[in-house]
Write a structure and sequence with these properties.
It catalyses: alpha-D-galactose 1-phosphate + UDP-alpha-D-glucose = alpha-D-glucose 1-phosphate + UDP-alpha-D-galactose. By secondary structure, the chain is an alpha+beta fold. It has two domains: about 160 residues, HIT family, subunit A; about 160 residues, HIT family, subunit A (2-Layer Sandwich). Helices cover about 25% and strands about 20% of the residues. The strands form three sheets. An eleven-stranded antiparallel beta sheet has the order 2-1-5-6-8-7-12-13-11-10-9, with helices on both faces. The protein has a two-stranded antiparallel ribbon with strand order 3-4. The protein is globular and about 55 Å long. The structure holds zinc ion. Zinc ion binds next to loops. The site of zinc ion has 5 residues, from loops.
Length: about 325
């Protein structure tokens, strides 16, 4: 599917020589000790790994033979992942190409183009949340080889899970407990407290607030909230979506200004079905780079116990980011 700024979306013909997927292509298993779900997807071992530029599957190609996108050019394109972790009637994996410019990045998109990407994510989120087999839609971007990116072309991914992920489940439990104890929405309380404290706020505009969370786990961790509570990107007004795109771009540009090389990062959108009691649209961004020449590795405490240790105070992370804003 190709998306353009004038609101047109075009469904292209899929000319890919796809291997036929079977239900056994991936398997969702539950760890009986913890209740965690693990997606077992052996076919992903075969996925394209850092192909040479002329073989880039995300660059436009009129023939559609060397690329996934049979078009002369495009603004934003979406297609089903050729190597999906989730498929069939148990979820779906899509790829979102942010731009046809192979050497571009999200941070270097115009505001209008960034807004188009958010509109495309809204379109896909609403469409996928409408499916009975989908419990949660996760739009995210992995940027940088250090993060494990296997294609250099600027792109993000959408995972439509047939189950609620552990982090979302934990957040919903916290929100329900907070509502039971105080009668208030947890995410409204968090935003109010951050705005009042101020010390961790990175950007505050009429419609959007970006802050480093009180208990940040990752280097350069920033959460971006629309000031009005909505469940997903599709519920934003035009003015709110424009402002969110602008703040999001400013954060990504600050990321790239922090060190000599662009910052590797993960940007993750939290979205919920319209009408859900708990849950509020927001983005969580973070890096694994903790200084110009050091990467944070998830070692024993983090990997084996999920107990994070951070060596930079969240208040100092916020100061670093404010200094990097242009
Ligand atoms: Zn490319």
């Amino acid at each position: 599917m190709l998306f353009d700024v004038d609101g047109r979306s075009v469904v292209g013909t899929d000319r890919r020589d796809l291997t036929v997927r079977t239900d056994s292509a991936s398997d969702i298993r539950v760890d009986r000790a913890t209740g965690d779900r693990v997606i077992v997807a052996p076919a992903r071992q075969e996925r394209t790994y850092l192909p040479p530029r002329r073989m880039c599957p995300l660059c436009p190609d009129p023939d559609g033979r060397s690329s996934e996108i049979p078009a002369d050019d495009y603004r934003v394109a979406v297609f089903e992942n050729r190597f999906p972790s989730l498929s069939g009637d148990r979820g779906r994996c899509e790829v979102v190409c942010f731009t046809s410019d192979h050497d571009g990045s999200f941070a270097r998109l115009s505001r209008e183009h960034a807004r188009l990407v958010l509109d495309v994510l809204a379109h896909r989120t609403v469409t996928l949340l409408d499916r009975d087999d989908v419990a949660e839609v996760h739009c995210f971007e992995n940027r940088g080889e250090e993060i494990g990116v296997t294609l250099a072309h600027p792109h993000g991914q959408i995972y439509a899970y047939p189950f609620v992920t552990r982090r979302t489940d934990a957040m919903m439990r916290s929100a329900a407990a907070h509502r039971a104890a105080t009668g208030a929405d947890l995410f409204a309380s968090i935003l109010d407290e951050e705005v009042t404290a101020g010390v961790r706020v990175v950007i505050a505009t009429e419609h959007t607030t970006a802050f480093v969370p009180y208990a940040a786990r990752w280097p350069a961790e920033v959460h971006v909230y629309p000031n009005r509570a909505v469940h997903h990107l599709g519920e934003l007004t035009d003015a709110e979506a424009d402002d969110l795109a602008d703040v999001y771009l400013r954060i990504l540009r600050a990321y790239d200004a922090m060190y000599a090389a662009p910052l590797p990062y993960i940007a993750s959108w939290h979205q919920y079905r319209s009408g859900s009691v708990e849950g509020r649209l927001h983005a969580e961004l973070f890096s694994i780079r903790r200084s110009a020449d050091k990467v944070k590795f998830l070692a024993g405490s983090e990997s084996a116990r999920d107990a994070f240790i951070t060596d930079r105070a969240p208040e100092d992370i916020a100061a670093d980011l404010r200094a990097a804003l242009r």
